[in-house]
Design goal:
- The protein is α/β, with parallel strands linked by helices.
- The chain has 2 domains: about 5-220, Rossmann fold, CATH 3.40.50; about 225-290.
- The protein contains 11 helices and 14 strands.
- The protein has helices at about 45-50, 75, 95-105, 115-120, 135-145, 165-180, 190-200, 215-220, 240-245, 265-280, 295-300; strands at about 5-15, 20-30, 35-40, 60-65, 70, 80-85, 155, 185-190, 200-205, 210-215, 225-230, 250-255, 260-265, 285-290.
- The strands form 3 sheets. The protein has a 6-stranded mixed β-sheet, with helices on both faces.
- The radius of gyration is 24 Å and the shape is elongated.
- The two termini are about 40 Å apart.
- Adenosine-5'-triphosphate (ATP) binds next to strand 2 and helix 1.
Amino acid sequence: MSNDPAVEIRGLVKRYGTKTAVDGLDLTVPRARVTAVLGPNGAGKTTTVETCEGYVRPDAGTVRVLGLDAAADAEALRPRIGVMLQSGGVYSGARAVEMLRHVARLHAHPLDVDTLVERLGLGGCGRTPYRRLSGGQQQRLALALAVVGRPELVFLDEPTAGLDPQARRATWDLVRELRSDGVTVVLTTHHMDEAEQLSDEVAIMDAGRVIAHGSPEELCRGGAENTLRFTGRPSLDLASLLKALPDGTQAAELTPGAYRVTGEVDPQLLATVASWCAQHGVLPSSLSVERHTLEDVFLELTGKELRA
Ligand SMILES: Nc1ncnc2c1ncn2[C@@H]1O[C@H](COP(=O)(O)OP(=O)(O)OP(=O)(O)O)[C@@H](O)[C@H]1O
């Protein structure tokens, strides 16, 4: 398998009239990994993904997918990529599982349809026309259609939006399995836990650009400070505690006996606080480290809540 990235986007610009949906975006997606694209409403996620899928023509920039040009080589790419659109993109009269079998037959090495149907809980809707399926069933069918051809690269646009917890978990399991089979997965999501649970890399978009990119751990480590809290007797000598801690660390007594230390909270800082407590005869009745979540990082970078 090639070591080239699965997707390489440079300087992508897409305008709709006077609206610039994507504004000079750069993004590299490694192969055989799950990359989550996060961003507030209107950030340009769908436009970016649809450009990669060959459905949207860029106004400027280059979009290489599996080493080919996403627009010029769209025909050659189609059998190699799987696409799950937000709006299904399925003929409404088609019968669910028949359609899946039909799509499977178009591919040289499809997944086993019966297994896929069972895993995604579609067993009961074999002959049901697409338009009569529930929203969640339509969504799961769209996912099945995207992956049944065993593509090298899969784009999933909000794959679990509106799914119940069980269907959500089945979707996550399937994504993990695709990844372990060497498939590259690019997904957009509004669910931070989904990005945290599933992705190797996260790209945070805002106003048509990628404003942060890294593993969830890298993103949570950078920028945002972490917090250590402990409770002990009231009115401890915080000036003395601060002397023991690195410059830039802050400490406060929020309510009598409830202390908060903020800064670069690493194992060394934890050890220093514990040792200071020991020297001052303090046995904290609680001590906890609060790591910043992706949600905190997202809010800090974009100033917006992730969810619509
Ligand atoms: N076909 C179109 N015609 C006109 N404007 C469009 C079109 N498609 C997208 N836009 C605009 O481009 C911007 C980016 O839209 P896009 O759907 O790519 O964002 P998104 O990050 O996927 O948003 P959401 O999270 O709400 O799905 C938005 O302001 C949107 O209104």
